[in-house]
C-alpha cells in the first residue's frame, strides 16, 4: 500500500512541460473538477431530469385539468341549486299568498258560522223563555182554577142541606141515565 501512495505523491513532482499529469493542488483543480462533474451530470442526466420534469409537468397539468373540471361541475351544480332556490322561493311566496287568502277565508267562515250559532242560541233562548212563560201561565191558571173550585165547593157545601143535596144527586143521576139511553 505504501507503494501506491508513494506513486501518487511522486506524481505531484512531475514537471508541467507539455505532458499529461495530475495536478494535486486542491485550490487549482477544484473548479475544474466541479465543472467536469457538472458537465458529465448535465450530459448524462439531461434525459432523466427532462423526464422527471416532464412527468411533474404532466401531473401538474392533470391536476389543473381535474380542478377545472371539478370547478365547472361545482359551478354547474351551484347554478342548478340557485335555479331550484328561486323556484322554491316562488313556491313559498305562492304558498304564503295562498295561505293568507285561505286564512282570511277561514276567518270569515268562522265569523259567519259564529253568527249563525249565536242566532240559533238566541232563538233557543227565546223559545225557552216563551215555553217557561206558557208553563207559568198554565200553572197560575191551574192554581186559580183549583182555588176557585175549592171556594165553590166550600160555598156549595155550606149552602147545601141534605135535602138539596139529595135532589141534586138525583137530578145528576137522571141526566146520566138519559145520556146513556141516547148513546145506546
TrEMBL record:
Cellular component, GO annotation: chloroplast thylakoid membrane; proton-transporting ATP synthase complex
TM annotation in the entry: 32-49
Record keywords: ATP synthesis, CF(0), Chloroplast, Coiled coil, Hydrogen ion transport, Ion transport, Membrane, Plastid, Thylakoid, Transmembrane, Transmembrane helix, Transport
Organism domain of life: Eukaryota
GO molecular function: proton-transporting ATP synthase activity, rotational mechanism
Coiled-coil residues: 64-98
Predominant location: membrane
Compartments in which it is found: Membrane; Plastid, Chloroplast thylakoid membrane
Bilayer topology annotation: Single-pass membrane protein
Assembly with partners or alone: F-type ATPases have 2 components, F(1) - the catalytic core - and F(0) - the membrane proton channel. F(1) has five subunits: alpha(3), beta(3), gamma(1), delta(1), epsilon(1). F(0) has four main subunits: a(1), b(1), b'(1) and c(10-14). The alpha and beta chains form an alternating ring which encloses part of the gamma chain. F(1) is attached to F(0) by a central stalk formed by the gamma and epsilon chains, while a peripheral stalk is formed by the delta, b and b' chains.
Extra remark beyond the main annotation: In plastids the F-type ATPase is also known as CF(1)CF(0).
Function comment: F(1)F(0) ATP synthase produces ATP from ADP in the presence of a proton or sodium gradient. F-type ATPases consist of two structural domains, F(1) containing the extramembraneous catalytic core and F(0) containing the membrane proton channel, linked together by a central stalk and a peripheral stalk. During catalysis, ATP synthesis in the catalytic domain of F(1) is coupled via a rotary mechanism of the central stalk subunits to proton translocation. Component of the F(0) channel, it forms part of the peripheral stalk, linking F(1) to F(0).
Similarity comment: family membership: Belongs to the ATPase B chain family.
Record protein name field: ATP synthase subunit b, chloroplastic
Amino acid at each position: 500500500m505504501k507503494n501506491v501512495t508513494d506513486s501518487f505523491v511522486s506524481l505531484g513532482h512531475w514537471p508541467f512541460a507539455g505532458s499529461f499529469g495530475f495536478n494535486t493542488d486542491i485550490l487549482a483543480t477544484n473548479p475544474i473538477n466541479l465543472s467536469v462533474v457538472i458537465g458529465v451530470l448535465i450530459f448524462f442526466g439531461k434525459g432523466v431530469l427532462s423526464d422527471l420534469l416532464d412527468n411533474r409537468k404532466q401531473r401538474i397539468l392533470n391536476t389543473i385539468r381535474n380542478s377545472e373540471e371539478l370547478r365547472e361541475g361545482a359551478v354547474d351544480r351551484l347554478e342548478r341549486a340557485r335555479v331550484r332556490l328561486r323556484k322554491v322561493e316562488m313556491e313559498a311566496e305562492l304558498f304564503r299568498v295562498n295561505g293568507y287568502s285561505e286564512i282570511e277565508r277561514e276567518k270569515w267562515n268562522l265569523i259567519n258560522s259564529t253568527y249563525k250559532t249565536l242566532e240559533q242560541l238566541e232563538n233557543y233562548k227565546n223559545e225557552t223563555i216563551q215555553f217557561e212563560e206558557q208553563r207559568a201561565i198554565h200553572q197560575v191558571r191551574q192554581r186559580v182554577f183549583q182555588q176557585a173550585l175549592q171556594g165553590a165547593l166550600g160555598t156549595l157545601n155550606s149552602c147545601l142541606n141534605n135535602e138539596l143535596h139529595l135532589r141534586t144527586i138525583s137530578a145528576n143521576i137522571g141526566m146520566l141515565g138519559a145520556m146513556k139511553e141516547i148513546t145506546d
